[in-house]
Design goal:
The complex is a heterodimer of chains A (about 110) and B (about 120).
Chain A (H helix, E strand, L loop, with lengths): L8 E5 L4 E6 L9 E6 L6 E6 L4 E2 L4 E4 L5 E6 L8 E7 L1 E2 L5 E2 L6 E6 L1
Parallel strand pairs in A: 1-11
Antiparallel strand pairs in A: 2-7, 3-4, 3-8, 5-6, 6-7, 8-11, 9-10
Chain B lengths: L3 E4 L2 E4 L5 E7 L5 E7 L5 E9 L2 E4 L7 E3 L5 E6 L8 E8 L2 E3 L2 E3 L3 E2 L3 E5 L1
Parallel strand pairs in B: 2-13
Antiparallel strand pairs in B: 1-3, 3-8, 4-5, 4-9, 5-6, 7-8, 9-12, 9-13, 10-11
Classes of the chains: A mainly beta (about 110), B mainly beta (about 120).
Chain lengths: ~110, ~120
């Protein structure tokens, strides 16, 4: 199972881009990279996922390196409401087509006014 | 669309008591999951279900039982609560969808149940 490594904490100024890195050097060829976030005391919220191409949606962009050993989540214009713990997750197969999400410690992003 | 809801939101039990946590989703999702989250830690999978009438063990199943009698509901039971089961319990559901020709799952989480066992 591929493990992920994230910095424990980061700060970002409000209105600036927040770039959250993640290392997953043992990722296998068909494993996806997912990003979730958890705002204090709430359930985790899906942000974005990708396999090998860069992805963008209304919340964020995901940049995956060509060798797929690392990725970066980009919040283009961070707001105070983006303060949360961000989890980078590599999917692990379970029975059938179910996918376990293994949550590590994540990165605590604090957006500063 | 209520999404994923959990009942109750808070509960305090004494050691040895039993209780059932209810998770309900109105998105017609096939897969449902129960996680626990201890203070300062990530989520750990307790049990999961890939369809009505089926359940399977996750990473930390001991002390818990589950049932999926209806597609929209996933119940988590504690037969004899212990202080080590003090935690926040999250339910999630998902439906596989195609992305680039392969299945990719996005899990929708409920708001959590905060359980304290004295």
């Amino acid at each position: 199972d591929a493990k992920t490594t994230q910095p424990p904490s980061m700060d970002c100024a409000e209105g600036r881009a927040a770039n959250l890195p993640c290392n997953h050097s043992t990722i296998s060829g068909n494993e996806y990279v997912y990003w979730y976030r958890q705002i204090h005391s709430q359930g985790p919220q899906y942000i974005i996922h990708g396999l090998k191409n860069n992805e963008t949606n209304e919340m964020a962009s995901l940049i995956i390196t060509e060798d797929r050993k690392s990725s970066t989540l980009i919040l283009p214009h961070a707001t105070l409401r983006d303060t949360a713990v961000y989890y980078c997750i590599v999917r692990i197969p379970l029975s059938g087509s179910a996918r376990q999400l293994t949550f590590g410690s994540g990165t605590q992003l604090t957006v500063l006014p | 669309n209520a999404g994923v809801t959990q009942t109750p939101k808070f509960r305090v039990l004494k050691t040895g008591q039993s209780m059932t946590l209810l998770c309900a989703q109105d998105m017609n999702h096939e897969y449902m999951y129960w996680y626990r989250q201890d203070p300062g830690m990530g989520l750990r999978l307790i049990h999961y279900s890939v369809g009505e009438g089926t359940t399977a063990k996750g990473e930390v199943p001991d002390g818990y039982n589950v049932s999926r009698l209806k597609k929209q509901n996933f119940l988590l039971g504690l037969e004899s609560a212990a202080p080590s089961q003090t935690s926040v319990y999250f339910c999630a559901s998902t439906i596989p969808r195609l992305a680039g020709g392969s299945h990719a799952n996005e899990q929708f989480f409920g708001p959590g149940t905060r359980l304290t066992v004295l």
